[in-house]
Write a structure and sequence with these properties.
Layout (H helix, E strand, L loop, with lengths): L6 H10 L8 H4 L3 E8 L5 E8 L2 E8 L6 E2 L11 E6 L5 E6 L24 E6 L6 E5 L1 E5 L5 E6 L2 E6 L7 E2 L6 E7 L6 E6 L4 E6 L7 E2 L5 E8 L6 E7 L16 E7 L4 E7 L18 E3 L3 E6 L6 E6 L6 E2 L7 E6 L5 E6 L12 E6 L6 E2 L6 E7 L5 E7 L6 E6 L26 E6 L5 E7 L9 E7 L15 H15 L3 E6 L8 H4 L12 H12 L4 E11 L1 H12 L6 E5 L20 H10 L13 E6 L8 H13 L4 E5 L9 H20 L2
Parallel strand pairs: 34-35, 34-36, 36-37, 37-38, 38-39
Antiparallel strand pairs: 1-2, 2-3, 3-4, 5-6, 6-7, 7-8, 9-10, 10-11, 11-12, 13-14, 14-15, 15-16, 17-18, 18-19, 19-20, 21-22, 22-23, 23-24, 25-26, 26-27, 27-28, 29-30, 30-31, 32-33, 33-35
Helix pairs in contact: 1-9
Length: 698
C-alpha cells in the first residue's frame, strides 16, 4: 500500500496510543532547548534563546546570581527561529534575528513552516536587557553591534546596512561595492568597518571609513581572502589567504591539499606579509572544523589558529611578526566552540578529552593559555559541556550542560574552575522522564576494511535474555559526533530523545559514528572513497548492523535503521544494498541522486571524469532500487533549505515506476530542521510507529 502526504499522520499518531509505554513522545521532547548563548563584553550579563516546545524566547541572566528571566513573549509554535543573539558591550541591549532557517545553505530566505497566510520575514530586532517590547530594525541577518552600543550593522541582500539600536531612525546602506559582503566587524573602539566581499571566483578584504573616502582594499590578489581580524589596537589586521577559483580540471575522486596561509596587514598602507603557510599535506589542508581556522589575535602579539597538521584539529600559536607555530594542545582529541578571554590571555573550548577513556565520546570544557602548551580540563566527569562563553568581567564561563538523562541546560561556573551552577535546571518541566531514561554505553567494532568504528548503545530496560528488535541510528551532517549524552545541537538533541523513546519501547538502538564524522582525527573525518565517490562510510553502517546481529540480546531478523539528511542517504543505501540485513527503515530528507556531484561534460574534462560518473552512480541510492525489498518510510518537508525536496520526489517516482511499495510523510512548508514542534512530534511518532509496525510486533 502506498500512503502519501499527510494522510499517514492520523493513522500513525493514533496507533501509538495502544502501546504500553513508560513515557510519551510528548514528555521526552518537552524539554526546553537552549541555543545562541551570548555574553556582553563588559560585566556579567548573558542572554540565551530557549525553545520550549516550539515557543522560542529570549532569556537573560546577570551575575553573580545568574537567575534566568524571560524577556520576550513569542508564545506560539510558529516555527520562527531566534538566532544571532548579540549583547551590546555595556550589556544594555540585546539584538537578535527572528525568522529564517539558521543552518540552511541560504539562511537569508524567509521560511513559513506554520503555513501562515502572512508573508514570512527574516528580521533584525533589538530589545533592552531590562525588558520591554522588541523593536524591528529591518529585514536582514548577522547583526553586529558597534563598540558604543548605539548602532547595529547587518547584512541585507548582500549589502551592509546600519540602524540605530533603538530603531529611532531609518536604516541606511553603509556603502556600495560589487559582490556579497560578509565577515564584517567594527574596529576596536572606532567606526571603521572591516569586511570581506565575495566576487565568486575570488574575494577581497576591505575597510570602509566614511561616505567620502574610497574603500581601502587590503593587499588585493588573485585569491580568496577570508576571516579578517583586527589587532587589539586596530593598527593591524590578520586574515587567511586561500587560492582563487580556476585552473586545469583535477582528479575528482582523489582528495587534494587545500592550500592556505596566514597574512598580517597594515591598514595604513594596505600591504600584507605572509607569516605562516600550511604544510602542503592533506592534514595541512584548510581545516573543516566548527569555526574553520578559528583565527584570534591574542595577548603578547600572538596569533592563535586551528590546524589538522598533526592529525587532529588542534590549537597553535604564532608571533604576529612570524616564526614557528607552537602546538598548544596535544593528544588524540578535537576542540570546537573556541573562545578568547577578554584579556586575550586564555582560550576556552569544548573538547572530547578528559581523565576517562569514554571522554572521547563526550564534550568537556578546557582552558588553555595562548602562549603555553598547557590544557586544563575544567569539567571532568560523565557530563556533556559545550558552547562556552566568557563573561565580560572574566569571572565566569556560561555554557550548555547535559548528561545521559538530563537534556542541555544553561550553566555557569567560575572562570578559574569549580562547581557549576545549573541555572537552567528549573526550566525542565515536571513531566520530563529523567528517572526513566537509559544511559547509553560506548561500543566499538571494525568495518570490513579494518576501520575502527564507535557508537553508543541504548539497551531497553527489562528482560536481558530475550532477543529484541534493534535499530541502527545514522546521524546527519556528516561532520557530527553523537555523544554519550544529550547533544548540544537541536536536531541531534531531538534524535537522542527519539533513541531514548525507542529504547523505552523495547528496541536496542545503536547510534553509529561513521567515518566522515568529527571527533576521531583527520583520517577518520577525511577517508578515501567517501560520499559520492565510493560511499566508504557505508561500510561502517553495515558493520553496525552486522555487530548487532551477532549480539545474544538482538534478534537478527528484526534489525532496522533510521536517519536524516546525510543519515537518510545512508539509510537508503542500507535498504538498497542490504535489505536482508536491514528489514525496514525510515529515510528522512535523504540525498538520493548525488546529482550535484556529476562532472560537467562541457569543455575540458577532469582526468577521471568517466570513472567519477560511474562511481557517483553506484554511490547513489537511486541505483539500488531494483535490489531494494525492505519496507521504507520517506519523510520530507517541502521547503527544505539543505536537501531539495526533489531528492525524495525522484526516488519515490522510481519506486512507482518499479511497482515497489513505500510509505511517505510530507510536511508542507517545513524546513530541514522541523522548526515547528507540532511537526517534529508528527515526524518522531511516524518514525517510532513505522519501526514498531515492521520490527517490534513480529
Amino acid at each position: 500500500m502506498r500512503i502519501k502526504g499527510l494522510i499517514v499522520v492520523g493513522f500513525l499518531v493514533g496507533s501509538l496510543a495502544g502501546f504500553a509505554q513508560d513515557f510519551t513522545m510528548e514528555s521526552i521532547t518537552s524539554y526546553p532547548f537552549p541555543s545562541e548563548l551570548s555574553a556582553s563584553a563588559t560585566g556579567s550579563r548573558i542572554a540565551v534563546a530557549l525553545n520550549e516546545q516550539g515557543k522560542r524566547n529570549i532569556y537573560v541572566a546577570n551575575g553573580p546570581e545568574f537567575e534566568l528571566k524571560k524577556r520576550t513573549a513569542f508564545d506560539l509554535d510558529e516555527g520562527l527561529e531566534l538566532s544571532c543573539i548579540r549583547l551590546s558591550a555595556d550589556g544594555k541591549w540585546i539584538v537578535f534575528v527572528r525568522g529564517g532557517d539558521y543552518g540552511a545553505f541560504d539562511e537569508t530566505i524567509p521560511r513559513n513552516p506554520s503555513s501562515s497566510p502572512a508573508s514570512p520575514k527574516v528580521q533584525v530586532m533589538s530589545l533592552p536587557f531590562e525588558g520591554g517590547q522588541p523593536t524591528v530594525l529591518d529585514e536582514g541577518t548577522e547583526p553586529v553591534i558597534d563598540p558604543s552600543g548605539r548602532f547595529v550593522l547587518y547584512e541585507k541582500n548582500g549589502a551592509l546596512w546600519e540602524s540605530p539600536i533603538d530603531g529611532s531612525s531609518k536604516p541606511v546602506r553603509k556603502f556600495f561595492t560589487k559582490g556579497s559582503v560578509s565577515q564584517y566587524s567594527y574596529e576596536p573602539g572606532g567606526k571603521r568597518i572591516l569586511f570581506v566581499v565575495n566576487r565568486r571566483t575570488h574575494s577581497f578584504i576591505g575597510i570602509y571609513t566614511d561616505s567620502i573616502q574610497p574603500i581601502q582594499w587590503i593587499a588585493p590578489a588573485v585569491a580568496r581572502d577570508v576571516s579578517p581580524r583586527w589587532s587589539p589596537d586596530g593598527k593591524r589586521i590578520v586574515f587567511i589567504r586561500r587560492t582563487a577559483a580556476g585552473g586545469r580540471p583535477d582528479s575528482i575522486t582523489v582528495r587534494r591539499h587545500q592550500a592556505w596561509s596566514i597574512m598580517v596587514a597594515d591598514p595604513a598602507t594596505g600591504k600584507a606579509e605572509k607569516i605562516w603557510t600550511a604544510p602542503r599535506t592533506l592534514r595541512g589542508s584548510y581545516p573543516g572544523t566548527q569555526g574553520g581556522p578559528n583565527l584570534h589575535w591574542a595577548d603578547q602579539d600572538r596569533i592563535v589558529f586551528v590546524s589538522f597538521m598533526d592529525g587532529w584539529p588542534h590549537l597553535y600559536s604564532i608571533p604576529a611578526k612570524g616564526g614557528e607555530a607552537m602546538l598548544l594542545t596535544k593528544g588524540n582529541y578535537m576542540l570546537e566552540h573556541i573562545r578568547l578571554s577578554p584579556d586575550r590571555k586564555w582560550l576556552v573550548a569544548a573538547a572530547n578529552t578528559g581523565p576517562e577513556k569514554d571522554d572521547l565520546h563526550r564534550r568537556h570544557l578546557v582552558k588553555i593559555p595562548v602562549d603555553k602548551p598547557t590544557v586544563e580540563v575544567l569539567t571532568p566527569g560523565k557530563g556533556i559541556e559545550a558552547l562556552p562563553v566568557i563573561t565580560g568581567d572574566q569571572q565566569h564561563i556560561a555554557f550548555i550542560s547535559a548528561t545521559a538523562q538530563r537534556p542541555g541546560i544553561v550553566a555557569v561556573m567560575p572562570f578559574t574552575g569549580g562547581k557549576a551552577n545549573h541555572i537552567g535546571a528549573s526550566e525542565i518541566p515536571s513531566e520530563f522522564p529523567v528517572s526513566k531514561l537509559v544511559e547509553p554505553k560506548s561500543v566499538s567494532f571494525k568495518a570490513s576494511d579494518g576501520v575502527l568504528v564507535h557508537g553508543q548503545l541504548f539497551e531497553p530496560p527489562g528482560n536481558k535474555e530475550a532477543k529484541k528488535p534493534a535499530v541502527v541510528f545514522i546521524h546527519g551532517g556528516p561532520q557530527r559526533q553523537m555523544l554519550l549524552g544529550w547533544h548540544y545541537g537541536d536536531y541531534y538533541s531531538n534524535t537522542y530523545a527519539l533513541n531514548q523513546y525507542l529504547a523505552s519501547q523495547g528496541f536496542v538502538v545503536l547510534s553509529v559514528n561513521y567515518r566522515l564524522g568529527i571527533g576521531y582525527g583527520y583520517e577518520f573525518q577525511y577517508p578515501p572513497n567517501w560520499g559520492s565517490y565510493g560511499a566508504s562510510e557505508y561500510l561502517d553502517v553495515k558493520a553496525a548492523g552486522d555487530w548487532l546481529a551477532k549480539q545474544s540480546f538482538v534478534d537478527p531478523a528484526r534489525i532496522g535503521t533510521y536517519g536524516g539528511s546525510y543519515g537518510g542517504y545512508l539509510v537508503a543505501l542500507a535498504l538498497g544494498r542490504d535489505s536482508k540485513l536491514f528489514k525496514a527503515g525510515v529515510d528522512i530528507h535523504g540525498v538520493h541522486t548525488n546529482r550535484e556531484d556529476y562532472p560537467s561534460l562541457d569543455g575540458e574534462q577532469a582526468p577521471d571524469a568517466a570513472y567519477a560518473k560511474k562511481i557517483i552512480w553506484q554511490s547513489s541510492p537511486v541505483s539500488w532500487v531494483k535490489q531494494w525489498t525492505s519496507p521504507v518510510l520517506f519523510i520530507h518537508g517541502d521547503d527544505d533549505g539543505n536537501v531539495p525536496f526533489f531528492e525524495t520526489a525522484d526516488l519515490v517516482r522510481r519506486f512507482e515506476q518499479a511497482g515497489k511499495q513505500y510509505e511517505s510523510l510530507v510536511i508542507p512548508d517545513e524546513t530541514h530542521h522541523w522548526m515547528r514542534y507540532h511537526n517534529q512530534l508528527i515526524v518522531n511518532k511516524a518514525v517510532a510507529e513505522f519501526l514498531s509496525q515492521h520490527l517490534l510486533k513480529k
